[in-house]
Amino acid sequence: MAQSIISKGRDINEAISVGLSILNTTINDVNIEVIQNEKKGFLKIGKKTAVVKLTKRENTFNDSSNSSINHQDFIEQAAAREVTSENIIDEFEMMEKLISQLDIDEDGSIKEDTLSETPINETSVPATNNNGMGKAWVENGLLQCNSSSTHYPVITVPKGINVYKNKERVTSSSLIITQEDDIQIELAEEKIKTKWNISMDKNHLKVMLNVFPGYKITRTLTDVGPSEHLKLVIEEEKIVDNSLTYEDIIKELDQLRVKYGFNHNEIIKAIETVEKGEFEIATGLEPKPGKNGWVEVLVKLETESGLKEKEDGSIDFKEINDIPAIAEGQVIGVVYDPVPGVPGVTVQNDPLPAKQTFPVVLQLDKGVERVGDQIISLQAGRPKVEKRGLFVKVSVLPKLTHKANVDLESGNIRFRGDVEVLGKVEEGMLVEATGDITIRKEVNRSKILAAGAITSYGNIMSSELSAGKSNMIITELGDHLAKINMNLKMILKLIEQLTQSPAFKNTDFNRRGLKPLIIILLEKKFRGFPGLVKTFNEKVTKHKEEIADKRFLDVSSQLNQCFLSLNRENVTHEYILNLSKEIHQLYEMSQTPVEPEAFITIPSAINSQLYCSGDITIHGKGSVHSKIYAGGKLKIRGIIRGGEVFGRHGVQINEVGSDMGAVTKIAVPRDQKIRIDKAMDGTTIKIGNVAHTFSETTHFVNAYLNEKQKMVLH
């Protein structure tokens, strides 16, 4: 009896190749019957594999009828066969079944989830029999087969499975097996060890444990029913195996000398966790901060605003400022010593000192005296307490009231205290005060300088106003000191390295001090440093009378002695180190806002320059062709026509720009906002380094920079 088998494949070519391989013969030695051609289906539905029946010929050596037929010729012949009525009926049946299973939306579209890739009642391949002959299956994790003389099962091997056939490993993705074959399947297990590490912060206050639990992956062969073409399937199970122990952690903590603040609950969580995590397993005791010295003020200091609004929103110019005043012998305030902090404890059980506290730097002006911890007034006047960090200046200001105009007849006014001018300030005149200045009428082509606030009830025309100038000087000096100290720290580091070298110890420098070494460093490595010191000293000298904190003068003198003086006076490393610390303290103080801050309040400004370390408010018509700088907020209720204005803490304006094309620029730092009710064509606003010019009139502008440093206008 001739041997025959039924073979399947993705196409006729593959089906024939599989069959020839099973029969171990060639195409010239078999008869081929096409049972089913492959079909691609419609919308992936109705897809079919190719099925052929191969029968070995008897006495093939005498049969030459097919000797000229090769593999490809047969495929082409099969593909070119005539379309029969049965085929047509089969196609129509498939389409009817396809359409009956589709789910249609109300708009006539096909729901995507109904386009299944599962074939519709695919025609079954005739089996060799109904009892598993010619098939393979997996049962209870074991691969079994029941081959026949006419059909051998084909096995597809996925990744993750090693198959050995007759003790040889199978390297291809598919193989044919028989009952006689010795098939061994190897499912490798994968095991990852637990990883963990312990770290300590630089202050030795926290110990953190990071845990990455290990795991084991076990694989089993899934049971699959009998099939002529069997694909092996595996199941994976991941079992977390956290092997970290309490003893492991304690041993590592002992290596780090951790003795204090164990968090046992966190340690237990870490060894039981099944997910990666971070645990704080030891915590030290942070030091409690102390408090620097301070002055408690016992008297009223702030002047009540003299520009009071009526119910209709207009300004009542008849109201007089409510200026605070004290009597002779009155207590102005109390001085308190610094309160030290409480030391902490590190996880290594070492004491952790609290941040050092410092006493207040108190400067008492004329008319004020300290008695014990109290500050007493020696004369009547307006109390003034100026605070900037640890620096506190206390004074009692007398008041000068000038009842006429400030003109050539009266001369310029310079006064240590408050000044009130009941008339005008005329062209070319100067009014300067260490306190506040109040002017009842106009200011024309003149200069007004106040250490405190400036209030004018009249318009400002072609004049210069400066309030809180000394505060700006301190800030500028602080910026200079920051640059100086950066270089000074590098000089100190080089000196430390050089003085430790044997070459230095064998020179005369070791006996004569550091001055010769400093001169060499300035000539070879820090040529620009003397210029920085010289610029700082010149600024201190220029504004000597305006600098209340005399520590700036002391630092200037020390810098001159160390780096500019030609004398050979001995300079030690400790001397330069202490100088660097003092410079740093002055810099921090210079960046601290002064209390109370100066301000300028006026009705309008024309062709003028206004500078203030605090807020500037223009409550009347506005500003025309003026230059304005506000260290605080800038608020203009009227209009701005031309000029440049800047508000360190933001700008708020009613109307900006001009129909005549006058250039108007508004600027703030990058962290502030510009609010304008009406911005006219040609107005330029700038936030940080980002500028925008309006091409048309725009209302209700609220400009700022977003997270991407792009300007947002509304």
TrEMBL record:
Gene3D superfamilies: probable RNA-binding protein from clostridium symbiosum atcc 14940 (3.30.30.80). SMART domains: Jag_N. Pfam families: FapA, FapA_N, Jag_N. Residues 6-57 form the RNA-binding protein KhpB N-terminal domain. InterPro entries: FapA (IPR005646), FapA_b_solenoid (IPR046865), FapA_N (IPR046866), Jag_N_dom_sf (IPR038247), KhpB_N (IPR032782). This is RNA-binding protein KhpB N-terminal domain-containing protein.
